[in-house]
Amino acid sequence: MRAGLADPVLDSQRIFRAVLEAMSHPGRVVSIGLEGTGLDPLHPATLSICLALVDFETPLWLDAAGRTEEVSAHLRFHCGCPLVDDPARARFAVVAAPAAMPDLDRFDPGTDEYPDRSATVIVQARTLAAGAGRRLTGPGIAADGWLDADGLPARFWEGLRANHGRFPRGVDVLLTAGTSMVALPRATRVEG
Amino acid sequence: MSALAQSEPAAVEAAWARLAARPEYRMLRAPETGLVMVRGRAGGTGAAFNLGEITVTRCSVELGDGRVGHAYVPGRDPRHAETAAVLDAMLQDPGERPALEATVVEPLIAARLARQHAARARAAATRVEFFTMVRGEE
Predict the structure, then answer these.
(1) What is the pLDDT of residues A140-158, one digit of tens each?
(2) Identity of the residue in B30, B32, B68 whose CB atom sits nearest the CB atom of A1
(3) What is the C-alpha to C-alpha distance for residues A68 and A76, in angstroms, rounded to an integer?
(4) At A94, is the secondary structure helix, strand, or coil?
(5) Fewer C-beta neighbours within 10 Å, C or N terminus of chain B?
(6) Looking at the partner chain, which of B30, B32, B62 has a beta carbon nearest the beta carbon of A1?
(7) Angle at B71 between CA A91 and CA B30, to 5 degrees
């Protein structure tokens, strides 16, 4: 088994701050800055977000590619989180292989009374780059933002548009690649 | 584990120092201190109630050969938790276990019992027997 965060308190605060920055500025590529903390097939950013945010109160769903013996044992030990088989019951979900991912509407979108009780879905892309690709508009984006994310199926982008249409319900998406991440919360409109 | 956890930190450290060979290990979870709610049952069989919280320090280590040890010890001594976790990992090997039981665990249990007996003897010396006089009026 592997060790968790080197400095549990400061590292998780640093990661939380990075996720907060990403969520406040959808489309901005934010670096988590912890090298060498990945656990195959999870990228360093994916694993860092899990270690910082997931705990015993947040059931976690892992896709088939991500649910290896090593990853399950690591997250169960360091996060103490229950692992669930049903995506609808998860508070956090990790998609290590987006090609085979379930549609976004399979995850919990919260209720009209409590839209905050929804799932956060972490999806691993191959590369993330701002400034080109798809156009993003919405809260937190000054004029318009551009995001180029490679390695995600067309199905995912359609699901993201449908997800925006369900506002205030819906899931929030965090894209990760290597040590960087981009947030696409439900309030963000994606075109192209 | 209870022998390691309930012994004095100094006694565990002394047992650790007595070992002929001390293994290499690395931290899976460095010692960290938190609160644990202790629950009790009235008379041992009644409904469960919360007795109160105690501070507990926990630690997990992995030895070079992959054996994993965990320790949860009362108090705030990180070194106690670390040593107990390493000893717990060493005790996972059936081959190594009998020798460790004899050199580490048994002396710790004996020391703990001696400590408890001393405390009981101190308390018993000041014991007051209450009784009621029969006042003789019907």
Answers:
(1) 998 888 999 999 999 999 9
(2) B68
(3) 12
(4) strand
(5) C
(6) B62
(7) 65
